[in-house]
Inverse folding.
């Protein structure tokens, strides 16, 4: 009966399902894109490490100031395998207003993991910088050449293909050069810490808490959960997606209201044939759920196509690394089901309470 | 046991301003075919709606097959298993096939589809619409539609058939055919029928004729 009803009113069904599909697609696309951005930033922080040390109570890691000497102190602890200082910055070049910049030491894992397309790690010193492949593309730079970044000129020591979109579109600078360029002498933004075998993460946390009160040490997962910027991004994604869903929900409500008002006589006939109020309500809820199911599947496919399309745009390559897991899809499906039930509430109530005798006289 | 028992039933609309039934009492035995006659607005349709439970009464009692038609669950159960309803207008769903329309009561009753299909074919054969089952209602003639409505009303093999001017919208030839069919189906199965009609000739072929006027039953003849 439910299927038959939806099949009979194809246009109405399609409009309702499209509303939900757009809601699902918007939600999954936004969540996927922003989630991907968060994931990429998390990867930058992980960098072969399990912990990150940063200045307490800063809203953004770009404002965190940690003395580089702390990295040496940490490295001297038996529980620490390596401690790598990283300075995050944003710089401009002619024709490019924002380029992410990473001040790192030559021993940093990033230089080892990337695929060197030009130059070598040996050249990564003094005023020589290494460019991500995409950054080299938009800066039109090659190894051995010179580029202008901010107020200074730098030699290009090499071009590396990095897996991470931000790194691939960014500039890797020797830490002292980066500190000088951004007036942060002796400072870095974070220290990424790898734990020595047989030791616990808690040992580093305790050492920091006992010896350096101004700083905080967190394991990567804890940091991801608590870092306010990540939370803001994630909440924004879900709020934007939720708003899209709200519109989708209104579309379903509208569809179902039209559907009920358009077949008052039919519903009355169903009652005369023995349908109970509950059966009528269940039929309306069932139709709504099926519309939402169609919309959810279509929305998932649409968002997949959108994300695929965005990744194919040359200007965005590397920056779009959508991250969609089963949790996001399950959440969208759950929201869709909730939308279906909420959207069908009034129409189902109205349909169930119809007086069949009066409704049969309805013209 | 009386199939239908209506006792001092009052029914009004518009907050009591329009009184349609004014103390109607009626008894119909199992297997009886009763005609309700009277002019338009005398309360025939309302009485049928009250018996079927489609309308609630203001006062009085209605019992069908020994059960009070008060609770929603009783009304639903009676409409599913005990009462069939045929209207003046066929009230089939236009963009469903005749077969799909006739299966609506089967779905409502939660009966097995196969069982429903067997019953459908049997009734469709008996009413001469078997070859039209796959057609959408809008493609059927007036007589076929009304015969289809008759099939639908009998799908769950009801004990009581309520007919509200079942031939009122048909031409002379179809009127006769449909009524004959109706009588045959009801009598051959020993079912009870209450039929509202203007048509005195058709009413004359029923076991009993009740004359309604201004919301009351003013007399009857056999």
């Amino acid at each position: 009966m439910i299927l038959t009803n939806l099949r009979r009113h194809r246009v109405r069904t399609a409009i309702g399902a499209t509303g939900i599909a757009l809601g699902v697609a918007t939600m999954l696309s936004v969540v996927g894109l922003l989630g991907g951005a968060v994931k990429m930033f998390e990867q930058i922080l992980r960098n072969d490490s399990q912990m990150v040390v940063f200045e307490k109570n800063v809203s953004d890691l770009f404002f965190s100031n940690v003395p580089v000497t702390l990295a040496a102190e940490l490295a001297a602890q038996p529980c620490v395998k390596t401690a790598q200082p990283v300075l995050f910055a944003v710089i401009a070049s002619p024709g490019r207003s924002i380029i992410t910049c990473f001040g790192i030491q030559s021993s940093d894992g990033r230089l080892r993991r990337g695929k060197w397309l030009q130059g070598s790690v040996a050249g990564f010193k003094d005023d020589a910088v290494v460019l991500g492949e995409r950054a080299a593309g938009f800066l039109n730079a090659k190894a051995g050449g010179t580029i202008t970044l901010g107020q200074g000129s730098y030699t290009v020591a090499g071009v590396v293909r990095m897996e991470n979109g931000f790194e691939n579109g960014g500039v890797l600078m020797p830490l002292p050069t980066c500190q000088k360029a951004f007036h942060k002498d002796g400072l870095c933004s974070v220290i990424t810490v790898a734990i020595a075998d047989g030791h616990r993460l808690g040992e580093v946390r305790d050492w920091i808490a006992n010896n350096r009160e101004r700083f905080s040490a967190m394991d990567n997962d804890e940091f991801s959960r608590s870092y306010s910027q990540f939370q803001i991004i994630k909440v924004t994604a879900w709020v934007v997606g939720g708003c899209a869903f709200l519109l989708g929900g209104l579309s379903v409500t509208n569809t179902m209201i039209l559907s009920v008002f358009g077949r008052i006589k039919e519903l009355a006939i169903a009652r005369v044939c023995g349908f109970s109020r509950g059966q009528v309500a269940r039929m309306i809820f069932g139709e709504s759920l099926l519309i939402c199911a169609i919309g959810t599947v279509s929305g998932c496919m649409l968002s997949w196509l959108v994300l695929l399309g965005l990744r194919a745009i040359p200007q965005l390559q590397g920056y779009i690394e959508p991250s969609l897991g089963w949790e996001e899809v399950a959440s969208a499906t759950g929201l869709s089901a909730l939308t279906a039930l909420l959207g069908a509430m009034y129409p189902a109530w109205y349909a169930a309470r119809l007086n069949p005798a009066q409704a049969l006289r309805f013209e | 046991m009386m199939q239908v028992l209506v006792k001092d039933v009052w029914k009004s609309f518009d907050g009591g301003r329009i009184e349609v039934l004014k103390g109607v009492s009626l008894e119909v035995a199992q297997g009886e075919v009763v005609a309700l006659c009277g002019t338009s607005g005398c309360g025939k349709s309302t009485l049928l709606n009250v018996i079927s439970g489609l309308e609630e009464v203001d006062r009085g009692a209605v019992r069908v097959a020994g059960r009070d038609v008060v609770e929603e669950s009783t009304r639903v159960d009676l409409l599913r298993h005990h009462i069939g309803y045929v209207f003046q207008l066929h009230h089939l769903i236009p963009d469903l096939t005749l077969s799909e329309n006739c299966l609506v009561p089967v779905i409502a009753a939660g009966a097995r589809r196969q069982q429903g299909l067997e019953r459908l074919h049997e009734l469709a054969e008996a009413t001469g619409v078997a070859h039209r089952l796959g057609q959408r209602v809008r493609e059927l003639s007036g007589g076929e539609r009304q015969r289809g409505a008759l099939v639908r009303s009998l799908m769950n093999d009801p004990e009581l058939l309520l007919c509200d001017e079942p031939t009122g919208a048909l031409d002379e030839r179809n009127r006769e055919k449909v009524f004959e069919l109706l009588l045959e189906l009801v009598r051959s199965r020993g079912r009870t029928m209450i039929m509202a009609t203007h048509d005195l000739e058709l009413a004359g072929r029923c076991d009993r004729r009740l004359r309604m006027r201004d919301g009351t039953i003013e007399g009857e003849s056999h």
Remarks:
- The longest strand of chain B covers residues 2-13.
- Residues 2-221 of chain B form a domain with the Rossmann fold fold (CATH 3.40.50.300).
- Strands of chain B lie at 2-13, 18-29, 33-37, 59-64, 67-68, 83-86, 160-164, 192-197, 208-213, 216-221.
